[in-house]
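Students often ask why we bother encoding 3D structure as a string. The short answer is that it lets us treat folding as translation between two languages. Here is a chain of 351 residues written in the first language.
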Amino acid sequence: MRLTPASTLLLAVLTGGLAVAAFGQATEDQVAKSQNAFPFAAPAGVDSHAIDRAPPGAINQGKFDDQKWKFGTAWDPPAGSKIWNPVKLKMMKGEKVTGGTLFAATDPEIYCAMANAGYDFIWTEHQHDARDWQTTQRMWGACPRARAVPGVRVAYTDEREEQHALDAGALVLVVPTVRSYEEAIRARDWAFFPPLGRRSVGGGQAFQLYANVPGGYRNTINDNLVLVLMIETLAGLKDADRIAKIPGVTAIFAASTDLGNHSGYKQGDPDYEREINIVHDAAIKAGVRLCGPLAWKDRPDFTCFQAGTEIAAITRGVAAELGPLANTQGKPEVGPYAAAATGGGSRLAGE
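And here it is in the second language, the structure alphabet:
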């Protein structure tokens, strides 16, 4: 049948109407599905006034107030959860823990050798070394079940620094030069997930390293993280009592070198010893652990220690292995080794 122009126009109108009807039906189906998937979603294009009122059944009713927010239970650790970080476990028992200092090495094999050498954790240095976070993450990932857990001293109190450390897998977080109570609060906030802190959750290597811990990483890391705040300045000493009492702080560290650097006194001077005792007193009053250099392992109430660097460990290890054969090299009178034989060689750094 041949259509006239008029009938062609009529057919177009009719089919167009069917198309509109079909499109409208699809939209209604989509809306229904959306309402089922997001039952509390604000209607499209409509102000729901959520800032002033909550959906039915919400715990937090009335006008929104971040200061009065009642935190939910979605991320609570399961009832009866046990501590899975061996360092936290020892510290809770008051036992002594040691951290070997990985100062300059970037090779995963060296890190793994340190991590299996007998320390409780590895103090990976980011304050006084220029290594980057990808390097650290690669080292920690190379031997995820080493005897010593990953630890780090970050450069300073900073959300980005702490976030990188924790996302990479740190279980011991050391924050240096904490100069005030307010700074200590920030250090704590960036270290822990809500409600204790303000750490952002965005994935990272930690979620793979600890994917199978009992209760799940997100739900249990707040209970397993070891947070150590270093008191290194006169300003930090002033607030030491308050810093030690901040919820989430596991230990405070009496910085043996920098407390001398910032005060003008050395170990053994009465003024220096007073500084160390201020940190000591703050720790015992707050019931937290007290950290210092390994040389203080017999000092009263100190239970957590920073041991020497990888270079110092190699030097001591070789000396212990060789015993009386150590440093018995031949002594030529001429040539490039003559100077070394008489003490002119390079000196390895100590602790």
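Translate back mentally: The CA atoms of residues 169 and 206 lie 4 Å apart. Keep this in mind for the problem set.
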